[in-house]
Amino acid sequence: MKTVLMSGGSGGIGSAIRATLEACGYCVVNIGRTQAEIVCDLQDAVGLEKALKTWLKTNTVDVLIHCAGVGVFEPHETLSAAKIKTLVDTNLTAPLVITSVCLRALCQTKGHVISIASVEATRHAKYSALYTATKSGLRDFGLCLFEEVRKQGVRVTTINPDMTKTPFFDTLHFEPSACEESYLLPQTLAQTVKHVLETKGVVTDITVRPQRVGIAKKTFTCKG
């Protein structure tokens, strides 16, 4: 049985990926603060490194999936240092640290690294500077890493999903529209992961988009 080590496997896209891969016979180990086999704060780089090194002493890894992520879409001048650090630590630093710790093990198994980035990593949008910076960094990391480890037999894939109907939008001021053709489902991305794992060659970079464009702005009512 092959082992999948992943972050963000407790909800949204990650939960769908986990369910799909477990149905295919993979053993999935999640990293996170809740519903995780490796309990760790992804924003604590030192603690994360220590926890993974301990786990790898008695385990191997065949597939590494980076799926944890947070978003903010606000004027950059309004963002605090704490919020900037949260996004950078979660969306970029954690995947870099996890990959660094696991890379030798992945070379031994000729494994696969898969990062869930974002369509925002491929374009430039208003109020997305911080989020795009983290996801573009993750995407470019994957493309560079493939050139570094391809001789060792390690495959590297970055998946760039467009708007996907998940709790990601719960804290944002917008969400996918009601039109079913304007958003992706988490299961679609899970099937994309399954596809790239089963592909004989290497899918280094893939963008998945809905057929139509549709964004709904949320309306908030004052209480009291």
UniProtKB/TrEMBL annotation:
<dbReference type="InterPro" id="IPR002347">
    <property type="entry name" value="SDR_fam"/>
</dbReference>
<dbReference type="InterPro" id="IPR036291">
    <property type="entry name" value="NAD(P)-bd_dom_sf"/>
</dbReference>
<dbReference type="Pfam" id="PF00106">
    <property type="entry name" value="adh_short"/>
</dbReference>
<dbReference type="InterPro" id="IPR050259">
    <property type="entry name" value="SDR"/>
</dbReference>
<comment type="similarity">
    <text>Belongs to the short-chain dehydrogenases/reductases (SDR) family.</text>
</comment>
<protein>
    <submittedName>
        <fullName>SDR family oxidoreductase</fullName>
    </submittedName>
</protein>
